[in-house]
Amino acid sequence: MEHKLKNAMVKRSNQSPALHLAMLVLLAVAACSPAPQATGISDPNEAANRRMHAFNLRLDQALFSAASDEDETKSPSLLLTRVTDFASNTALPSLIVNDLLQGNIEDAAHNSVRLLFNTTIGLAGLFDPATGVGLEQRSTDFGETLHVWGVAEGDYVVLPFYGPSTQRDAVGIAVDFFTNPLSYTLPNPESYLPAVAKVVAPLGGRVAYASTVNDILYGSEDGYLTARLFYLDNRRYNLSGGESSDELYDIYEEAYD
Fold it and tell me: How far, in Å, are 27, 66, 189, 237 from residue 143 at the CA level?
């Protein structure tokens, strides 16, 4: 009996540390409950946020002045499409990590198959054949992971370049610069690709949906309020799993009371 016990202990001690970590993460996720759905608007630093919003508008005009006249019916340039497809594919490992941290095995498997498909058939992600066969990207981030772990939304903030956010999502953006395994497995300078991809990936959407973005930023009397309402409503809707709730639209009433 003693001999069998020793063998069992040796076998357990030889298990992969990664397996131990995965088991601990799954247990931790199972013990967590998502943060309650936020309502209303908490913007105690509105003056500072408005200054950052104004800075971002100047940056947007400098970078995307050509996009301001784009029609959404027009497709982005071929070069931009290739760049954004490659950036999105490079960012996929980070999404998979967050899926696992959230205990979302189905989306982790889906995004893994997409990564394999586009990295091989799509020539390292320069093309996106996966979407054409139903393997669309299932987006997530560390901000959503924090939500799943029960972290509250916090105050509304405006970040340089990234724009509307919350305290929780701002932490998520910062952490996601370090959650991509490619940053630790690729040699230099290729190891910097995930960080570059995180910055480049949103640019394609800015151009592709130029008309809608311009309406939000420039088409209303107070673009700051419009951007804040749009971000909070859309983010809360997505984090709720796409389930509509009257509470999601209270922010509109509060802003204009």
Answer: 20, 31, 28, 14
